[in-house]
Amino acid sequence: MRDTLGVLLAGGAGERLFPLTRDRAKPAVPFAGQYRIIDITLSNCINSDLRHVYILTQYKALSLNRHIREGWGSVVAQELGEFIEILPPMQRVSKSWYQGTADAVYQNIYSIGSEEPKYVIILSGDHIYKMNYAKMLQHHIDTKADVTLATLPILPEEVSSFGVVEVGKNGEVTGFEEKPKETKVRSPFMPDMVDASMGIYIFNTDVLLPELMKDAEDPNSKHDFGHNILPNLLGRCRMQAFNFVDENKQNALYWRDVGTLDAYYEANMDVAGVTPIFNLYDKSWPMRTRAYQYPPAKFVFGEPGRTGMAINSIVASGSIVSGAVVRNSVVSQDVRVNSYADVDSSIVFSHVNIGRHCRIRHAIIDRDVHIPDGTVIGYDQNEDRKNYFVSPSGLTVVTRDYSVYENPVSPEFMQTL
């Protein structure tokens, strides 16, 4: 891994996570009470001993930049040349914003070249999974590959959301198609499944950089790894697939793209159960984040009808559940849930105050929101739509200026979610 540079793409606008991404980048959205989404990939890097990482940011990156600077700068040994470094768009080789995933890497080609890595691993900052990238790199080296794609099995009806990888019996990649409507391709190892790209690629640097420059000069290119770089390299270099090895230690593989509100909500619910599907408590694969100096969580009052308790939930430090009930929920740092309130199957971001007698279910409460006494959220979608954002599936999202939401988005936009 000393010869490997990680390039973590964290610049997506995250429209499908609106309104959570209205004021923050998608990788900066909170996750599981005290983390940000990007912490999962960065933890994988550290646990894999990948300690040379560039993070490519773009949209609304202030909170993300601050989180990386204050939470991750001290994790690596800078005196040994290790780094986790933010690279904003510098327009060094182009005067435009990043036009695609490949263009984002191309626009930082000088920074990559200055490190002189033998291998470059391309990562995304908006997925939830546990993976040892060192195992993938060893597979890349052992198979003498020029490019290696991480793959996982999916159902054939899910292919429109993934890059479909056609894999030979020896693991060689013989075909690639980005997000087809349907496919007849099947995995040679699981005949009822399709091998899908995880968006994780290892390139030999001497293969990657010339291909990025060639792609940048193509006016018809989308400048995207899935649409352009990988299909163009097929047949011209040795391309291998690496079957996802899950470090989560569960019976089923766990990988989640949290690019939509529903997927994000379900991933948070996955960590709050009695036996969490995504285990944050595995000491052999620790998840790291920025440390805040809050006191421990506290639960007070034990009177009939006024008992402070949390059931099947995560409650982060600095929070007080005061004579209220929290069920099946994720409560972030520095939250106050006041007496007689009931919070069920919800995600509450930091610095939120929930008033007395509130009833909240199947909702996401953004940071710094004050919920007045007696407020009811998540029980009547028609009423919720008058003041809040309600997703097509019925998930209610409350933001700081929720009172202005009469018609938060156009019907056309809602159809794209």
From TrEMBL:
Q: Which residues form a coiled coil?
A: none
What are the EC numbers? Answer: 2.7.7.27
Q: Which UniProt keywords apply?
A: ATP-binding, Carbohydrate metabolism, Glycogen biosynthesis, Glycogen metabolism, Nucleotide-binding, Nucleotidyltransferase, Transferase
Sites binding alpha-D-glucose 1-phosphate sit at Y98, G163, E178, K179, S197
Report the residue ranges that make up the Glucose-1-phosphate adenylyltransferase/Bifunctional protein GlmU-like C-terminal hexapeptide domain in this protein. Answer: 295-398
Q: What are the protein's GO molecular function terms?
A: ATP binding; glucose-1-phosphate adenylyltransferase activity
**Pfam families, alphabetically?**
Hexapep_GlmU (PF24894), NTP_transferase (PF00483)
Instruction: Write the signal peptide boundaries.
Output: none
Q: What class of enzyme is it?
A: transferase
Under which pathway is this protein filed?
Glycan biosynthesis; glycogen biosynthesis
Gene3D superfamilies in UniProt: Hexapeptide repeat proteins, Spore Coat Polysaccharide Biosynthesis Protein SpsA, Chain A
Q: Which residues form the Nucleotidyl transferase domain?
A: 6-271
Instruction: Please list the GO biological process terms of this entry.
Output: glycogen biosynthetic process
Site residues, Could play a key role in the communication between the regulatory and the substrate sites? Q58, W97
Enzymatic reactions: alpha-D-glucose 1-phosphate + ATP + H(+) = ADP-alpha-D-glucose + diphosphate
Subunit info here reads:
Homotetramer.
Enumerate the HAMAP family for this protein.
GlgC
Protein family: Belongs to the bacterial/plant glucose-1-phosphate adenylyltransferase family.
Q: What does this protein do?
A: Involved in the biosynthesis of ADP-glucose, a building block required for the elongation reactions to produce glycogen. Catalyzes the reaction between ATP and alpha-D-glucose 1-phosphate (G1P) to produce pyrophosphate and ADP-Glc.
The protein, known as: Glucose-1-phosphate adenylyltransferase
- Source organism: Granulicella tundricola (strain ATCC BAA-1859 / DSM 23138 / MP5ACTX9)
What is this protein's gene name?
glgC
